Amino acid sequence: MASYHRVLKVFDRSIHDKSLECNYDIHPWEVLINGERWAGKVRLIGFVDVFFLMCYSADARFEKGIIIYKDDEVIRDTLQRANVDASKIKLDVVNAKEMQNDDNLPPKYFNFHSQPLDYIITSLGHEVGLKTEYPSSSLIKYEIKILKSRNKVMKKRVRRAVTQHSLMDLMQDAIRLGVISHAEMTAQLLGNFYIGSATDDAMRKYMETLGSASQPDSIALSNETS
After folding, report:
1. What's the confidence (pLDDT) of residue 172?
2. Cα 81 to Cα 160: distance, rounded to the nearest angstrom
3. What's residue 166's pLDDT?
4. How confident is the model over 184-196, as a mean pLDDT?
5. Residue 182, pLDDT score
6. What is the pTM of this model?
7. N or C of the chain: less Cβ packing under 10 Å?
8. Lowest mean pLDDT among 115-119, 128-132, 146-150
9. Whole-angstrom Cα distance, residue 116 to residue 147?
10. What is the phi-psi region of residue 95: left when phi exceeds 0, alpha when psi lies from -120 to 50, beta otherwise?
């Protein structure tokens, strides 16, 4: 059986990627996947736009795993290309109320809740392996429940791995990692702010930050660490 590193490579991912947010073992009793617990070691490998849960045995030998999509644009595109109706797989639209007030808003499906003891993530995903193509029937709704770690560093990294990145996070990604394009940043801004002064101010702040990043005396973002 191949290692989970080979499975990641199928998706053009690696634990050495700059966009890696988390690469931690999680005790099987600390994670529920659609209400089930996996037997064996479980590893959470999170990136800016997706995260993987891998079940493995000795020597990183892959047993089974899933990918969870965090980017709503990717989720919409994946559903469309696979000709899958979100309602048929019970994937709820989380911004339905906002869409009633604005016909131009696209649906959002990724949902994250931080509870006192757990993180709960609901989104689109599918099982993974060494295959490069998957049938549309493999796309299903996943609910992932992860117990919060008592380790503050691990807790922070896990949260970043399983949540969508905020505007400030995306700015940090764009500047430090180069994994977010200007177009994606603009789409994020337009998707989170109403047209008007709020958008203008955010756009101006974004452009000023990008500009200052190329200056030798540039100031780091508040959530940037060395």
Report:
1. 65
2. 28
3. 67
4. 53
5. 53
6. 0.77
7. C
8. 128-132
9. 9
10. alpha
Q: Determine contact, residues 140/77, Cβ cutoff 8 Å.
A: no
Q: In whole angstroms, what is the distance from residue 140 CA to residue 128 CA?
A: 12
Rounded to an integer, what distance in angstroms lies between the CA atom of residue 55 and that of residue 42?
A: 5
Instruction: Please report which helix (H) or strand (E) contains residue 43, including its range.
Output: strand 41-47
Other Cβ atoms closer than 10 A to 159: 18
Beta-carbon neighbour count of residue 149 at 10 Å? 17
How many other CB atoms sit within 10 Å of the CB of residue 72?
Answer: 19
Q: Where are the beta strands (DSSP E) in 70-206?
A: 111-114, 118-127, 140-147
Give the separation between CA 8 and CA 62, rounded to whole angstroms.
Answer: 10
Residue count of the chain: 226
Provide mean pLDDT across the span 97-111.
92
pLDDT value of residue 88: 96
The token pair that represents 186 in the structure block: 């603009």
Instruction: Report the pLDDT value the prediction gives residue 198, as an integer from 0 to 100.
Output: 47
Residues 198, 66: Cα–Cα separation, whole Å: 38
Of residues 185 and 59, more confidently modeled: 59
**CA–CA separation, 11 vs 54, rounded Å?**
14
- The answer to whether residues 144 and 121 touch, using CB atoms and an 8 Å cutoff, is yes
Q: Is 146 exposed, middle or buried (0-12, 13-18, 19+ CB in 10 A)?
A: buried
